[in-house]
Amino acid sequence: MSTEEKSLNFIEQIIEEDLKNGLSADKLRFRFPPEPNGYLHVGHASAICLNFGLGIDYNAPVNLRFDDTNPSKEEQEYVDAIKRDVEWLGYKWDKECYASDYFQQLYDWAVELIKKDKAYVDSQTSEEMAKQKGTPTTPGTDSPYRNRSIEENLDLFTRMKNGEFEKGTHVLRAKISMSANNMLMRDPIIYRIMHAHHHRTGNDWCIYPMYDWAHGESDYLEQISHSFCTLEFLPHRELYDWFLNQIYDPTKVRPKQREFARRNLSHTVVSKRKLLQLVEEKHVTGWDDPRMSTISGMRRRGYTPASIRNFAKTIGIAKRDNLIDVSLLEFCVREDLNKIAPRVMAVLDPVKLVITNYPEGQEEWLEAENNPEEEVMTFRKVPFSKELYIEREDFQEEAHKKFFRLTLGTEVRLKNAYIIKGESVIKDENGNITEIHATYDVDSKSGSGTEASQRKVKGTIHWVSIPHAKEAEVRVYDRLFTNESPDKDKEVDFKEYINPNSLKVITGYVEPSLITSKELDHFQFQRLGYFCVDRDSTAEKLVFNKTVGLRDTWAKISEQ
């Protein structure tokens, strides 16, 4: 990487400094280390983009390592989902690793700690250990089992491994200092007993390593040069280094832990525990519900990998936590979809329009451009007939001067078609308009090249031909939470802020070209927003999710 090409963030500066101080560039190796206890969310997306982006920038390998040390919460489903998400974002890992790959080595190293009198088996209850831990301002007190003999500790630890004890009866603790200023250094737990089936190792183990023990040692075994974590792991760095000191070989790369700030997103939660609550309590339809902040939810909603990568690049890396407005993410999505999404016509709140002077039974197939952003313009054919659907809001019987859509006595152009003039309406017994009658200018066909076709009118509206229209279920999404920081107030359950109107399901009509669309195909419904095909969609029943509007209306609503 040329440091002159761009300004470096503080993480890149750390790497550059290490390279200047003698670290060989071919020793650079990064990792993304998710715990497979849930689906990844937008915060993980930023971490993925950071680590794999560094791999690309420095031409260095990146490992995908699963921190699978807690089998009671981990499942193969989550492993598969994580791999799918990373690949979908456009990244490839060098090695697929698991902390469970190293269970035997971690155990052997723990035995060595015991032999060096740097670890002991504690038989207190968790409540007793919590009491003797002390506080940030007062030192802790030693466990009554802290001075067990090495022989007794080795015997107990072996029997723990062999499954002779119940969960909670013993733990293995590092022997550091009960008066350390950093409370994480006060004889932290290394192993606990868990009689739980592991998704990879089955029932081979009855004891499992704690994250702090497995994290740095796994980095060391994989020869990771830089281990980047979020800020909550800053107090853990001292322990990370202490554990490494016990095993480090100076001829090998010593991993370096450094921390960056979480980038929280407004109107969302990014705690896997809280996301799991939403799923289990059925506030959403699943981990991939398009209202969720999960990567799978964003994918199903129609967000693109490029837009998420660009979002991560835009918000950058910081040293302090910050709340990012979700509108910025939506801007990135909108910007990408504007370039790639074909323009099609759909009507979501239909009212019937009859062109009274159009020949009965006649139909035409008119030419429509697919995307004006294309370098080489392509076109499709759309059917036109005497009876059309238009949006109900595109017509007013009596309109103010700035209403440039269809009214009685005024003209408007039908997109890709003719200029029409409103003539009359038919209403039901309640006064609701059921039909609009209009006439068309036969010489005003869009793109016909005649003089009339160039005639200008102030408004253009979209439409679909009723005989050709395909019915579609359209799911329109709003923010899942009404509060921009739903989990900030610890006195209020975050679920109190769930938006009861976060999903609106409507029946609309789309042009027939969409009958062959496939899952995750993106479209701009002209004048309405960006939509994508949902996985529930079939040839018999089309289903679309609204991805994002054409413009940021939320900011305006918030201001009001």
TrEMBL record:
Residues 124-145 are annotated as: Disordered. GO terms for molecular function: ATP binding; glutamine-tRNA ligase activity. Residues 134-145 have a biased composition (Polar residues). Its EC number is 6.1.1.18. L-glutamine binds at D67, Y211. PROSITE patterns: AA_TRNA_LIGASE_I. It is an enzyme of class 6 (ligase). PANTHER family: GLUTAMATE--TRNA LIGASE (PTHR43097:SF5), GLUTAMINE-TRNA LIGASE (PTHR43097). Monomer. Belongs to the class-I aminoacyl-tRNA synthetase family. This is Glutamine--tRNA ligase. The gene is glnS.
